[in-house]
Design brief:
By secondary structure, the protein is mostly helical. The chain has a domain of 242 residues. Helix content is 63%, strand content 3%. It has 17 helices and 2 strands. A two-stranded antiparallel ribbon has the order 1-2. α1 crosses α15, α5 runs antiparallel to α11 and α8 runs antiparallel to α11. The radius of gyration is 26 Å and the shape is globular. 37% of the residues are buried.
């Protein structure tokens, strides 16, 4: 039996205080686990430093504090340090989006590094053979070619998964090594620069992007104070393309039918097929888009960072595509989460050198921190702690009786073994349906919740 329907109110009629409370609860639920994982990893890092350092307890604690201070200063302590960090952040954002969109569909994309390599080597092959093309033609061609190459490489995984049932973890790992060795062959063979050892020819100048500081001096700097020594700030304008990619990802997943279908597939593939969602087609598209994001990461890093050429064995020792797994997990596969997780991982990588130089703490500590972050998220320590603490500390808003001005919420009702509603049992098995609920699906009813 359905409860009487209350007057439906729009968002503009809700109490501002209640809206703020709901927003704060959602924010806390979304960032609670990532923040807890980072804090736990940092504390564990302090313990590791104190255990491995000589001296008294005070000396060890001072050593740990100095290490983290040097780590922060090397990552975000100055404008120059921040520019170095953004160099690492840009490809992490693209690769993180590649892994995140696959996660949304319930897929595990381990192949971001291989897709990144394919995108970069494709752009390099075109760029060094099109040196006479104007920049306004060559730059878009390289970007599209790199994204398309990554999409093809990821699409292979999607085809094998959707139509052959091959597990994406196995196929992405295998395709990674194919991409690495093919890239090495091309770098040391057809694309080799005779004047350089184990490297390709550099891209022509019209196919490269300027540094942010140089771009600023030539635009806003013409009437605002200029940046002295712009070449000392290594962040390039491809960082803005990474921000655009975050917006595109957010719009694609939150404001399109395709994004809705992907989320449904990731949560319940059987329900998606029952609802008529083209599961196989969407799996292929998800992996192709994931490959395109990673391919763009390789292209933009090549076009934005001096000396604008590729070196043999680079991709085999590069960890961007694998760090992207941690970025996507820590960011909860959201656009804003991927951005901040990329800042964290990029900052850890950049600050490791200064920490080792100033605090005499090995830079490998940052890898311990990254691993502990992922371990904390995978082990779900925070939910376990929440279950152990009194429930009243984590109580949620509960539905209240219908009142004027309340908003309507659709909730699922528990079903018995025969799939009938509990309130039918309480009425002696009466299966009569009230007219007010005839338009709703079985197992659902509308109640008024005061927000």
């Amino acid at each position: 039996m359905a409860m009487p329907l209350a007057h439906q109110s729009g968002p503009e009629q809700r109490a501002p205080a209640s809206n703020r409370l709901i927003w704060l609860r959602r924010l806390g639920a979304s960032i609670g686990r990532p923040v807890f994982a980072v804090v736990l990893a940092m504390v564990a890092g302090i313990i590791v430093i104190m255990i491995t350092s000589p001296g008294s307890f005070g000396d060890r604690l001072t050593e740990a504090i100095s290490a983290y201070q040097a780590l922060f200063m090397g990552s975000f302590g100055s404008l120059q340090s921040l520019s170095y960090t953004l160099v690492n952040v840009t490809p992490l954002i693209f690769a993180g989006l590649s892994v995140a969109i696959a996660f949304r569909a319930g897929l595990f994309n381990i192949g971001a590094e291989g897709q990144l390599a394919v995108g970069a080597i494709t752009a390099s092959a075109i760029g060094i053979h099109a040196t006479t093309w104007p920049g306004w033609v060559l730059i878009p061609v390289l970007i599209v070619a790199g994204a398309l190459a990554g999409a093809i490489w990821g699409g292979i995984v999607g085809i094998l998964k959707a139509w052959r049932g091959a597990h994406e973890v196995v196929t992405t790992i295998m395709l990674n090594w194919i991409a690495f060795f093919v890239a090495d062959y091309l770098i040391n063979g057809p694309l080799l620069d005779p004047a350089l050892a184990n490297s390709t020819k550099p891209l022509p100048p019209q196919a490269t992007f300027p540094l942010i500081s140089v771009f600023y001096n030539h635009t806003l700097g013409t009437f605002l104070p200029q940046i002295a020594g712009p070449q000392a700030y290594l962040a390039d304008v491809t960082f803005f393309f990474a921000l655009i990619a975050l917006v595109v990802y957010w719009f694609l997943m939150s404001r399109t039918t395709f994004g809705y279908e992907v989320r449904v597939i990731g949560q319940n593939p059987k329900a998606a097929r029952y609802a008529g969602i083209p599961t196989k087609r969407n799996i292929f598209l998800v992996m192709a888009i994931a490959g395109a994001f990673a391919g763009l990461g390789g292209v933009f890093h090549l076009m934005g960072q001096f000396p604008y050429y590729l070196t043999g064995s680079t991709f085999r020792i590069d960890t961007v595509g694998f760090d992207a797994i941690g970025v996507a997990l820590l960011g909860h596969t959201t656009a804003i989460g991927v951005f901040f997780a990329s800042l964290l991982f990029g900052g850890l990588r950049q600050g490791a050198g200064l920490m080792q130089l100033n605090a005499n703490v090995p830079g490998d500590l940052v890898y311990i921190i990254q691993a502990l972050v992922l371990f904390s998220i995978a082990a779900e320590f925070l939910p376990a702690i929440q279950r152990a603490l009194p429930k009243r500390m984590f109580s949620r808003l509960r539905p209240l009786p219908a009142t004027a001005g309340g908003s309507l919420t659709v909730v699922d009702l528990p079903e018995n073994d025969n799939g009938s509603l509990h309130d039918r049992e309480s009425n002696g098995g009466d299966s009569h349906k009230d007219d007010s609920t005839a338009e709703h699906s079985p197992g659902q009813m509308q109640i008024a919740e005061e927000e």
